[in-house]
Amino acid sequence: MVRKKIVRVEVSPSLYESVSRTAEAKGVSLPEALRIALQEWASREGDLSLDPLFDPTWKGTEGKKSDASKVDEVLYGRKRGRRTP
Asked: What residues make up the domain containing 25?
């Protein structure tokens, strides 16, 4: 069973109208618009120490060799070093 939390917040009438109109214009319900806004705010302002990408002890692919020789061919459809007019 998925547990959910209910959040109650008071906002000014102008903010309510702005969010409500935007949600309607985007075709989402007001609760869904608020969920989206909360998620985006949390991902932007959240604690990066919980993200493994920002872990200073992470070694990543250290010691592994990589081969980028086919990047141009994959991206641009041409072999590296050849220029097409």
From this structure: 11-50
pLDDT in tens, 58-83: 776 666 777 777 777 888 887 655 55
Domain count, the chain: 1
Residue 79 lies in a domain: no
pTM of the predicted model, to two decimals? 0.54
CA distance 56 to 22: 40
29 is a domain residue: yes
DSSP letters of the chain? ------------HHHHHHHHHHHHHHT--HHHHHHHHHHHHHHHHS-GGGSGGG-TT--TTTT-----TTHHHHHHSS-TT----
CB 43 within 8 Å of CB 49: no
Residue 26 domain flag: yes
Kindly state whether residue 18 falls inside one of the protein's structural domains.
Answer: yes
